[in-house]
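Hi support team,

I've been running sequence recovery on a batch of backbones for a student project. Most finish fine, but this one hangs at about 90% for roughly twenty minutes before it completes. I'm not sure whether the input is malformed or the queue is just slow. I've pasted the structure tokens below so you can try to reproduce it. Let me know if you need the job ID as well.

Thanks,
M.K.
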């Protein structure tokens, strides 16, 4: 996660517990228990160790992470027209234009994790 530690907090490489478990020749559940409720103080702030285990999403044969997708959703919604907010379907269309296939329930899940209400509730 070198780019993250060099200051680009929106850049996490895909990394799974399975990858670390294989590298350390340990069970995945052992790694999970070891990082549970542990945090790391970095120049970018305090983050739970689980933060660094980003899930991969395939983008035109290039790996991108769910964390990056969430940040992009957050940015899209921050910059939307408040009188005509983006629906989950609009967000899906945006990602499909970049070659990223996502289900509506995935967008909904990410939006809820970011504490962003539905488009109906964001309309002013």
């Amino acid at each position: 996660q070198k780019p993250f530690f060099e200051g680009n907090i929106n850049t996490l490489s895909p990394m799974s517990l399975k990858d670390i478990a294989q590298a350390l020749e340990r069970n995945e559940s052992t790694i999970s228990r070891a990082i549970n409720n542990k945090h790391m103080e970095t120049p970018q702030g305090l983050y739970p160790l689980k933060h660094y285990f980003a899930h991969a999403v395939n983008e035109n044969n290039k790996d991108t992470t769910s964390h990056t997708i969430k940040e992009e959703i957050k940015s899209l919604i921050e910059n939307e027209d408040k009188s005509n907010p983006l629906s989950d379907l609009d967000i899906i269309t945006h990602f499909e234009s970049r070659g990223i296939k996502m289900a509506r329930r995935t967008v909904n899940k990410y939006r809820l994790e970011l504490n962003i209400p539905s488009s109906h509730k964001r309309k002013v």
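--
Follow-up from support: It reproduced on our side and the slowdown came from queue contention, not your input. The chain has a mean pLDDT of 85. No action needed from you.
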